[in-house]
Amino acid sequence: KAGVTQTPRYLIKTRGQQVTLSCSPISGHRSVSWYQQTPGQGLQFLFEYFSETQRNKGNFPGRFSGRQFSNSRSEMNVSTLELGDSALYLCASSSTTGPYNEQFFGPGTRLTVL
Amino acid sequence: AQSVTQLGSHVSVSEGALVLLRCNYSSSVPPYLFWYVQYPNQGLQLLLKYTSAATLVKGINGFEAEFKKSETSFHLTKPSAHMSDAAEYFCAVGDQGAQKLVFGQGTRLTINP
I need a surface site. Which of A6, A16, B31, B77 has the fewest CB within 10 A? Predict the structure, then answer.
């Protein structure tokens, strides 16, 4: 079974631009979560989607948004990029919901904002 | 709110020595706890998880962790370190009401030959 895939793996943008990151979950997984990883703040939860609905959202500004499609693939968008948005963005999928269901992580998209 | 504290941002051990990575949690309800490992330029891989079935949890690659409610701890151990264990390790607690993980700051493990 293929793992979680994220595209692109690396991205360089300039301040003020917007960016869209893509995540394809493991086949059959309906829950997709997004996390931001930075050296200063560590790993922080962005949001989670299940059956095309955002069920939970972390403490991030409205510039960060996402969506999920009927095939469970998910995208996240960051508008008006700031230097502080430079990070590794990780996507994780899970077969069912619940606090102890394993989340399988993708390799991440490394975003650099210049 | 749930939280996790990992004691020691860097741990260095010799090959063959005991590995001990510390994690303490804060949770008002019985926690669901996880240890993940991250190798350079990769995502996170689950090592093991605690879901209240047993206090001593065995994971992959020879790692295990013991849940101690009285100490609110979930330390990760491995009897004999291998060079391939060099990585960053994250302890996390699962949010009861959401498919959401709250992570500790991570511990970078270095193995000396």
Answer: A16
Instruction: With beta carbons under 8 A apart, name residues in chain A contacting B90.
Output: 43
Q: Give the count of Cβ contacts less than 8 A between chain A and B.
A: 65
Give the other-Cβ count within 10 Å of B86's Cβ: 17
pLDDT of residue B66: 95
Residues 6+ apart with CB under 8 A from A61: none
Q: Round to whole Å and give the CA distance between B36 and A88.
A: 16
Between CA B3 and CA A104 the distance in angstroms is 21
Tens digits of residue pLDDT in B17-71: 999 999 999 987 778 899 999 998 889 999 999 887 788 999 999 999 999 999 9
Question: Does pLDDT of A100 surpass 80?
Answer: no
Closest CB to A48: pick one of B44, B45, B100: B100
Cβ-defined contact of B98 to A99 (cutoff 8 Å): yes
